[in-house]
Design goal:
single chain; alpha/beta; six-stranded mixed sheet; five-stranded mixed sheet; 14 helices; 11 strands; globular
Length: about 350
Protein backbone atom coordinates (compact mmCIF):
# COMPACT_ATOMS: atom_id res chain seq x y z
CA UNK A 1 0.00 0.00 0.00
CA UNK A 2 1.16 3.54 -0.76
CA UNK A 3 2.94 5.14 2.25
CA UNK A 4 1.04 8.42 1.78
CA UNK A 5 -2.26 6.54 2.01
CA UNK A 6 -1.11 4.89 5.26
CA UNK A 7 -0.15 8.30 6.65
CA UNK A 8 -3.58 9.71 5.80
CA UNK A 9 -5.30 6.74 7.48
CA UNK A 10 -3.12 7.12 10.56
CA UNK A 11 -3.92 10.86 10.66
CA UNK A 12 -7.66 10.20 10.40
CA UNK A 13 -7.48 7.56 13.15
CA UNK A 14 -5.62 9.98 15.40
CA UNK A 15 -8.24 12.70 14.83
CA UNK A 16 -11.03 10.19 15.58
CA UNK A 17 -9.36 9.15 18.85
CA UNK A 18 -8.90 12.79 19.89
CA UNK A 19 -12.56 13.57 19.19
CA UNK A 20 -13.64 10.48 21.13
CA UNK A 21 -11.56 11.51 24.13
CA UNK A 22 -12.99 15.03 23.96
CA UNK A 23 -16.51 13.61 24.12
CA UNK A 24 -15.56 11.50 27.14
CA UNK A 25 -14.07 14.54 28.88
CA UNK A 26 -17.35 16.45 28.48
CA UNK A 27 -19.33 13.54 29.92
CA UNK A 28 -23.05 13.15 30.41
CA UNK A 29 -25.32 15.98 31.59
CA UNK A 30 -24.98 14.82 35.19
CA UNK A 31 -21.18 14.95 35.21
CA UNK A 32 -20.42 18.60 35.80
CA UNK A 33 -17.43 17.87 38.06
CA UNK A 34 -14.18 16.20 37.06
CA UNK A 35 -13.29 13.04 38.94
CA UNK A 36 -10.18 14.73 40.33
CA UNK A 37 -12.37 17.44 41.92
CA UNK A 38 -14.51 15.07 43.95
CA UNK A 39 -14.40 15.38 47.71
CA UNK A 40 -12.33 12.63 49.36
CA UNK A 41 -12.58 13.49 53.07
CA UNK A 42 -14.88 12.08 55.75
CA UNK A 43 -18.58 11.79 54.94
CA UNK A 44 -21.06 13.82 57.00
CA UNK A 45 -24.70 12.94 57.50
CA UNK A 46 -27.31 15.67 56.96
CA UNK A 47 -31.06 15.42 57.59
CA UNK A 48 -32.94 17.61 55.12
CA UNK A 49 -36.60 18.58 55.52
CA UNK A 50 -37.68 19.61 52.02
CA UNK A 51 -40.80 20.87 50.31
CA UNK A 52 -41.45 18.39 47.52
CA UNK A 53 -42.97 20.71 44.97
CA UNK A 54 -43.02 23.52 42.50
CA UNK A 55 -39.95 25.57 43.42
CA UNK A 56 -38.03 23.29 45.79
CA UNK A 57 -36.42 21.19 43.06
CA UNK A 58 -32.68 21.83 43.47
CA UNK A 59 -32.09 19.47 46.44
CA UNK A 60 -33.87 16.67 44.60
CA UNK A 61 -31.85 17.31 41.45
CA UNK A 62 -28.66 17.32 43.56
CA UNK A 63 -29.62 13.98 45.04
CA UNK A 64 -30.54 12.49 41.65
CA UNK A 65 -27.30 13.63 40.02
CA UNK A 66 -25.09 12.45 42.89
CA UNK A 67 -23.87 15.91 43.87
CA UNK A 68 -24.39 15.34 47.59
CA UNK A 69 -22.31 12.17 47.53
CA UNK A 70 -19.65 13.85 45.37
CA UNK A 71 -19.29 16.47 48.08
CA UNK A 72 -18.95 14.05 50.95
CA UNK A 73 -22.52 14.25 52.23
CA UNK A 74 -24.99 11.51 53.08
CA UNK A 75 -28.27 13.40 52.86
CA UNK A 76 -31.51 11.92 54.13
CA UNK A 77 -34.45 13.76 52.58
CA UNK A 78 -37.77 13.90 54.41
CA UNK A 79 -40.48 15.35 52.16
CA UNK A 80 -43.25 17.78 53.11
CA UNK A 81 -46.16 19.17 51.12
CA UNK A 82 -45.26 22.77 51.96
CA UNK A 83 -42.33 24.67 53.41
CA UNK A 84 -43.93 25.60 56.73
CA UNK A 85 -44.03 21.92 57.70
CA UNK A 86 -40.38 21.53 56.72
CA UNK A 87 -39.52 24.52 58.92
CA UNK A 88 -41.53 22.96 61.76
CA UNK A 89 -39.37 19.84 61.47
CA UNK A 90 -36.25 22.01 61.71
CA UNK A 91 -37.55 23.91 64.75
CA UNK A 92 -38.53 20.62 66.42
CA UNK A 93 -34.98 19.30 66.00
CA UNK A 94 -35.94 16.68 63.42
CA UNK A 95 -33.81 18.15 60.63
CA UNK A 96 -30.47 19.88 60.18
CA UNK A 97 -31.50 21.91 57.12
CA UNK A 98 -34.95 22.79 55.82
CA UNK A 99 -36.35 24.48 52.72
CA UNK A 100 -38.96 27.21 53.20
CA UNK A 101 -40.00 30.58 51.80
CA UNK A 102 -38.62 33.84 53.14
CA UNK A 103 -41.95 34.70 54.78
CA UNK A 104 -41.82 31.51 56.86
CA UNK A 105 -38.49 32.71 58.25
CA UNK A 106 -40.05 36.13 58.83
CA UNK A 107 -43.02 34.60 60.67
CA UNK A 108 -40.83 32.38 62.85
CA UNK A 109 -38.15 35.00 63.49
CA UNK A 110 -40.19 36.62 66.28
CA UNK A 111 -40.05 33.46 68.42
CA UNK A 112 -37.07 31.53 67.03
CA UNK A 113 -34.04 33.80 67.01
CA UNK A 114 -31.66 30.94 66.26
CA UNK A 115 -32.91 30.36 62.71
CA UNK A 116 -30.41 31.10 59.93
CA UNK A 117 -30.79 31.48 56.17
CA UNK A 118 -27.90 29.75 54.38
CA UNK A 119 -28.84 30.79 50.85
CA UNK A 120 -31.64 30.73 48.31
CA UNK A 121 -32.44 27.87 45.97
CA UNK A 122 -35.08 29.71 43.94
CA UNK A 123 -37.01 32.90 43.40
CA UNK A 124 -40.59 32.36 42.35
CA UNK A 125 -43.88 33.99 41.31
CA UNK A 126 -46.12 30.92 41.45
CA UNK A 127 -48.75 32.14 43.93
CA UNK A 128 -52.31 32.77 42.72
CA UNK A 129 -55.66 33.87 44.08
CA UNK A 130 -57.99 31.15 42.81
CA UNK A 131 -61.76 31.39 43.19
CA UNK A 132 -65.10 29.82 42.38
CA UNK A 133 -66.90 31.72 39.62
CA UNK A 134 -70.29 30.60 40.94
CA UNK A 135 -69.81 32.73 44.08
CA UNK A 136 -70.32 36.03 42.29
CA UNK A 137 -66.63 36.85 42.06
CA UNK A 138 -65.70 38.72 38.90
CA UNK A 139 -63.34 41.43 40.17
CA UNK A 140 -60.92 41.49 43.12
CA UNK A 141 -63.26 43.87 44.98
CA UNK A 142 -65.82 41.04 44.99
CA UNK A 143 -63.65 39.18 47.52
CA UNK A 144 -64.97 41.53 50.21
CA UNK A 145 -67.04 39.49 52.63
CA UNK A 146 -65.98 36.20 51.04
CA UNK A 147 -64.45 33.25 52.85
CA UNK A 148 -60.86 32.88 51.64
CA UNK A 149 -58.57 29.98 52.50
CA UNK A 150 -54.84 30.47 53.08
CA UNK A 151 -52.09 28.62 54.95
CA UNK A 152 -51.10 30.62 58.07
CA UNK A 153 -47.61 32.14 58.44
CA UNK A 154 -46.78 31.54 54.77
CA UNK A 155 -45.94 33.86 51.89
CA UNK A 156 -49.41 33.05 50.49
CA UNK A 157 -50.91 34.89 53.47
CA UNK A 158 -48.67 37.92 52.88
CA UNK A 159 -49.31 38.02 49.13
CA UNK A 160 -53.05 37.68 49.70
CA UNK A 161 -52.93 40.76 51.94
CA UNK A 162 -50.89 42.74 49.37
CA UNK A 163 -53.23 41.71 46.57
CA UNK A 164 -56.26 42.87 48.55
CA UNK A 165 -54.62 46.19 49.45
CA UNK A 166 -53.68 46.87 45.82
CA UNK A 167 -57.32 46.25 44.86
CA UNK A 168 -59.00 48.35 47.53
CA UNK A 169 -59.91 45.58 49.96
CA UNK A 170 -58.66 45.47 53.56
CA UNK A 171 -57.45 42.17 54.98
CA UNK A 172 -60.11 42.49 57.72
CA UNK A 173 -62.83 42.75 55.03
CA UNK A 174 -62.55 39.07 54.13
CA UNK A 175 -63.28 36.01 56.26
CA UNK A 176 -59.93 34.23 56.52
CA UNK A 177 -59.93 30.43 56.81
CA UNK A 178 -56.50 29.24 57.91
CA UNK A 179 -56.07 25.84 56.30
CA UNK A 180 -53.25 23.66 55.05
CA UNK A 181 -52.90 23.56 51.23
CA UNK A 182 -54.44 20.08 50.87
CA UNK A 183 -57.37 21.18 53.06
CA UNK A 184 -57.82 24.25 50.87
CA UNK A 185 -58.18 22.09 47.77
CA UNK A 186 -60.90 20.05 49.49
CA UNK A 187 -62.67 23.09 50.98
CA UNK A 188 -62.91 25.08 47.77
CA UNK A 189 -63.93 21.98 45.83
CA UNK A 190 -66.87 21.21 48.15
CA UNK A 191 -67.87 24.86 48.50
CA UNK A 192 -66.65 25.38 52.08
CA UNK A 193 -64.66 28.43 50.96
CA UNK A 194 -65.14 30.84 48.07
CA UNK A 195 -61.52 31.55 47.16
CA UNK A 196 -57.96 30.74 48.20
CA UNK A 197 -54.40 31.98 48.11
CA UNK A 198 -52.16 29.06 47.12
CA UNK A 199 -49.46 28.11 44.67
CA UNK A 200 -48.33 25.76 41.92
CA UNK A 201 -49.64 22.21 42.23
CA UNK A 202 -52.52 23.19 44.53
CA UNK A 203 -53.85 25.67 41.98
CA UNK A 204 -53.62 22.91 39.40
CA UNK A 205 -55.57 20.52 41.66
CA UNK A 206 -58.28 23.11 42.25
CA UNK A 207 -58.61 23.72 38.51
CA UNK A 208 -58.83 19.98 37.90
CA UNK A 209 -61.56 19.67 40.53
CA UNK A 210 -63.66 22.72 39.58
CA UNK A 211 -63.11 22.70 35.84
CA UNK A 212 -64.70 25.70 34.13
CA UNK A 213 -65.92 26.98 37.52
CA UNK A 214 -62.35 27.88 38.54
CA UNK A 215 -60.59 31.16 37.74
CA UNK A 216 -57.59 32.94 39.21
CA UNK A 217 -55.45 36.05 39.35
CA UNK A 218 -51.66 36.23 39.85
CA UNK A 219 -51.12 37.04 43.53
CA UNK A 220 -47.62 38.48 43.51
CA UNK A 221 -47.59 41.18 40.83
CA UNK A 222 -43.88 41.46 40.05
CA UNK A 223 -42.64 40.63 43.55
CA UNK A 224 -40.95 37.25 43.66
CA UNK A 225 -40.37 35.45 46.92
CA UNK A 226 -37.11 33.77 47.91
CA UNK A 227 -37.05 30.07 48.65
CA UNK A 228 -34.43 29.42 51.31
CA UNK A 229 -32.20 26.86 52.90
CA UNK A 230 -32.62 27.24 56.65
CA UNK A 231 -30.58 25.95 59.57
CA UNK A 232 -30.36 26.57 63.30
CA UNK A 233 -27.47 28.52 64.76
CA UNK A 234 -26.18 25.70 66.98
CA UNK A 235 -25.91 23.19 64.15
CA UNK A 236 -24.62 25.79 61.70
CA UNK A 237 -21.82 26.81 64.05
CA UNK A 238 -20.70 23.19 64.48
CA UNK A 239 -20.87 22.18 60.79
CA UNK A 240 -19.41 24.98 58.63
CA UNK A 241 -17.66 22.58 56.23
CA UNK A 242 -20.80 20.50 55.71
CA UNK A 243 -22.70 23.69 54.89
CA UNK A 244 -20.10 24.69 52.31
CA UNK A 245 -20.30 21.29 50.66
CA UNK A 246 -24.11 21.36 50.75
CA UNK A 247 -24.08 24.75 49.04
CA UNK A 248 -21.62 23.42 46.44
CA UNK A 249 -24.08 20.63 45.67
CA UNK A 250 -26.83 23.25 45.27
CA UNK A 251 -24.61 25.25 42.91
CA UNK A 252 -24.01 22.14 40.84
CA UNK A 253 -27.75 21.49 40.70
CA UNK A 254 -28.27 25.12 39.65
CA UNK A 255 -25.65 24.69 36.91
CA UNK A 256 -27.24 21.45 35.72
CA UNK A 257 -30.68 23.08 35.60
CA UNK A 258 -29.31 25.99 33.59
CA UNK A 259 -27.32 23.89 31.13
CA UNK A 260 -29.80 21.06 30.68
CA UNK A 261 -33.28 22.50 31.33
CA UNK A 262 -35.03 19.82 29.26
CA UNK A 263 -33.37 17.05 31.28
CA UNK A 264 -34.22 18.86 34.53
CA UNK A 265 -37.86 19.28 33.54
CA UNK A 266 -38.15 15.60 32.58
CA UNK A 267 -36.76 14.60 35.96
CA UNK A 268 -39.15 16.93 37.81
CA UNK A 269 -42.17 15.62 35.89
CA UNK A 270 -41.14 12.03 36.61
CA UNK A 271 -40.09 12.58 40.24
CA UNK A 272 -43.14 14.57 41.33
CA UNK A 273 -45.66 12.98 38.96
CA UNK A 274 -46.46 16.31 37.26
CA UNK A 275 -47.65 16.51 33.69
CA UNK A 276 -45.17 18.22 31.39
CA UNK A 277 -47.51 21.10 30.55
CA UNK A 278 -47.63 22.04 34.24
CA UNK A 279 -43.84 21.75 34.59
CA UNK A 280 -43.38 24.03 31.58
CA UNK A 281 -45.76 26.60 33.06
CA UNK A 282 -44.09 26.80 36.47
CA UNK A 283 -40.60 26.74 34.95
CA UNK A 284 -41.30 30.18 33.48
CA UNK A 285 -42.19 31.47 36.96
CA UNK A 286 -39.09 30.16 38.73
CA UNK A 287 -35.45 31.19 38.74
CA UNK A 288 -33.31 28.49 40.32
CA UNK A 289 -30.42 30.43 41.84
CA UNK A 290 -28.16 30.08 44.87
CA UNK A 291 -27.55 33.52 46.34
CA UNK A 292 -27.91 35.86 49.33
CA UNK A 293 -29.18 39.17 47.92
CA UNK A 294 -29.70 42.43 49.79
CA UNK A 295 -33.32 42.42 48.63
CA UNK A 296 -33.97 39.38 50.83
CA UNK A 297 -33.47 41.51 53.95
CA UNK A 298 -35.79 44.22 52.66
CA UNK A 299 -38.50 41.70 51.85
CA UNK A 300 -38.34 40.11 55.29
CA UNK A 301 -38.52 43.54 56.94
CA UNK A 302 -41.65 44.36 54.91
CA UNK A 303 -43.21 41.06 55.94
CA UNK A 304 -42.36 41.63 59.59
CA UNK A 305 -43.96 45.09 59.56
CA UNK A 306 -47.09 43.57 58.03
CA UNK A 307 -47.32 40.91 60.76
CA UNK A 308 -46.86 43.52 63.48
CA UNK A 309 -49.44 45.88 61.94
CA UNK A 310 -52.02 43.11 61.69
CA UNK A 311 -51.27 41.86 65.22
CA UNK A 312 -50.22 38.43 64.02
CA UNK A 313 -47.38 38.55 66.55
CA UNK A 314 -47.14 39.93 70.06
CA UNK A 315 -43.81 41.54 69.21
CA UNK A 316 -43.77 45.21 68.26
CA UNK A 317 -40.28 45.60 66.81
CA UNK A 318 -38.92 44.39 63.47
CA UNK A 319 -35.98 42.02 64.09
CA UNK A 320 -32.54 42.79 62.70
CA UNK A 321 -32.51 40.26 59.88
CA UNK A 322 -28.77 40.49 59.44
CA UNK A 323 -28.67 38.31 62.54
CA UNK A 324 -30.68 35.65 60.71
CA UNK A 325 -28.32 35.32 57.75
CA UNK A 326 -25.35 32.93 57.72
CA UNK A 327 -23.08 34.48 55.13
CA UNK A 328 -19.80 32.59 55.66
CA UNK A 329 -20.84 29.40 53.85
CA UNK A 330 -21.90 30.92 50.54
CA UNK A 331 -19.24 33.60 50.70
CA UNK A 332 -16.60 30.84 50.84
CA UNK A 333 -17.88 28.93 47.79
CA UNK A 334 -19.57 31.61 45.67
CA UNK A 335 -18.65 35.09 46.95
CA UNK A 336 -20.17 36.93 43.99
CA UNK A 337 -23.59 35.54 44.99
CA UNK A 338 -23.52 37.42 48.30
CA UNK A 339 -24.63 41.04 47.94
CA UNK A 340 -25.91 41.54 51.49
CA UNK A 341 -24.20 44.52 53.10
CA UNK A 342 -23.05 43.96 56.67
Amino acid sequence: MNISILKRKAYRLTIAIILFLMVLSVGSPGCSRKESEKYTGPVEKVALAAYAGSYGFLPFIAQEQGYFAANGLEVTVNEYDFGLKAADALVAGNADIATAADFVLTSYSFDHGDLRALGTIATSTTDEIVFRKDRGIEKPIDLKGKRVGVPAKTKAEYFLARFLTFNGVAFRDIHVAYLEPSQIVEAISNGGIDAASVWGPFVQKIRASLGANAASWPAQSDQAFYYLLLGREGWVRKHPEAIKRFLKAMMQAEEFTGKYPAEARKFVARRFKYDMAFVQSIWQKNNFTVELPQALLLQMEDGARWRIKNRLTRKTKVPNYLNFIYIDGLKAVKPEAVTIIR
